[in-house]
């Protein structure tokens, strides 16, 4: 089966950030089509479909048509996108695929391409009036493979605190979730050399940012300190 992952494009510097949604993963057979459209009572099961299913992709936005666009994968693994006569348009890398209520052929899409569904209405003042902006990744390309560089960096991180048995234990596991710290994971290393999964430590980071209070050794540091001053 071929796969696609759609992730929201988030730009906090822009007033038009688009609708936020959790990343969506779908799998399909060759030549199968997955519709993209607006959430309705008839397709509400698709909104809660498990990751990796072949259910339609739906968004809770009124600027998205009920049947807005189609994604298709050919037997050679190449992906294509088509606008399905949507009223507010489908944009591929900021280029509109077809005019309103018109349907043209499929357009090729590749890793890293951006898709936008519709245009903001009423300035996007509410989520239901926001367009959908997303980045495409195909055929498990988002799944990072461990290479020698990843292993070397991970080993160097563990060697930061190998002076004691407690240091060895702390270097190999996250003190918050107690799971191991592995290569290719998003990690945060504090100036006191303690480390955690970024997802686990993030609430602590943002609570008093830029000051950081280490939950392991209780030391305090300034995360905005200039590099030259450290």
From TrEMBL:
Compartment list: Cytoplasm
GO cellular component: cell division site; cytosol; ubiquitin ligase complex
Residue ranges constituting the RING-type domain according to the UniProt record: 174-218
Gene Ontology annotations of biological process type: cellular bud neck septin ring organization; establishment of mitotic spindle orientation; mitotic spindle orientation checkpoint signaling; protein autoubiquitination; protein localization to bud neck; regulation of formin-nucleated actin cable assembly; septin ring assembly; ubiquitin-dependent protein catabolic process
Reactions accelerated catalytically: S-ubiquitinyl-[E2 ubiquitin-conjugating enzyme]-L-cysteine + [acceptor protein]-L-lysine = [E2 ubiquitin-conjugating enzyme]-L-cysteine + N(6)-ubiquitinyl-[acceptor protein]-L-lysine
Signal peptide: none
Coiled coil: none
All copies of domain FHA, residue ranges: 34-97
Principal cellular location given in the protein's record: cytoplasm
Statement: the UniProt record of this protein carries the keyword Metal-binding: yes
GO molecular function: ubiquitin protein ligase activity; zinc ion binding
Family, similarity comment: Belongs to the DMA1 family.
Database matches in PANTHER family: E3 UBIQUITIN-PROTEIN LIGASE DMA1-RELATED, E3 UBIQUITIN-PROTEIN LIGASE RNF8
Protein name in UniProt: RING-type E3 ubiquitin transferase
Organism from which the protein derives: Metschnikowia bicuspidata
